[in-house]
Design a protein that fits this description.
- The chain is built from three helices and no strands.
- It is mainly alpha-helical and 73 residues long.
- It has a domain of 48 residues.
């Protein structure tokens, strides 16, 4: 089931940007992968560089040096 998902969707679900479907939320393989991703983010990425859970991450930067989208503007 997890391998049948599209990569952009998986990325959003695993990083907390979007809620996975109830079926996927009950999948043991997905839950282990989600826990692994969360642990890696907590260990390696400063919290001030990440978007809040449930919010989209920065997609790019404009010429002013500020994010052009996302919630870190």
């Amino acid at each position: 089931m997890v391998l049948d998902c599209e990569n952009p969707d998986l990325f959003q679900w695993l990083t907390g940007q979007a809620e996975p479907s109830p079926e996927l939320s009950a999948n043991p393989a997905f839950l282990r992968l989600q826990a692994h991703v969360a642990a890696q983010l907590n260990e390696r990425a400063r919290s001030d560089t990440r978007g809040a859970l449930g919010k989209p991450w920065v997609r790019g930067w404009n010429d002013s040096g500020k994010p052009s989208s996302g919630n870190q503007q």
